[in-house]
Amino acid sequence: MFIALCCLLSALTLYIQALTHAMGAKRWGVLGLLLGPFVMPMFFTHKRMTMLKAQGRTNVSMLVR
Questions:
Q1: How far apart are CA 22 and CA 34, in angstroms?
Q2: In sequence order, what DSSP letters do the residues of 3-54 get, joined into one string?
Q3: What pLDDT digit, counting tens, does each position of 10-51 carry?
Q4: Smallest Cα–Cα separation from 14: which of 30, 24, 28?
Q5: How remote is the C-alpha of 9 from its chain's centroid?
Q6: Among 54, 5, 1, 2, which residue's Cα sits nearest to residue 33?
């Protein structure tokens, strides 16, 4: 029961994050549903690679937090 809930919550989180960052939301939602929170590092890496590809490698970006 706990594993199913964890997978469902990670699928929902990944789906929302993929929508806000203009990535394939359905794909990340299904991956989150199947593999659970183990997909998170892959998602963050893919998000960073997508950002670098969109802006180019010669540009400098600063994230202000």
A1: 21
A2: HHHHHHHHHHHHHHHHHHTTS-HHHHHHHHHHHGGGGHHHHHHHHHHHHHHH
A3: 999 999 999 998 888 999 999 999 998 999 999 999 999 988
A4: 28
A5: 13
A6: 5
**Tokens coding 15:** 């789906």
Q: 15-21: which pairs have CB atoms within 8 A and are 24 or more residues apart? A: 17/43, 17/47, 18/43, 21/47, 21/50
Which residue range(s) make up the domain with 4?
A: 1-63
Instruction: Report the number of distinct structural domains present in the chain.
Output: 1
Give the predicted TM-score (pTM) of the model.
0.77
Tokens of 55: 């802006």
Closest to 51 (Cα-Cα) out of 23, 32, 26: 23
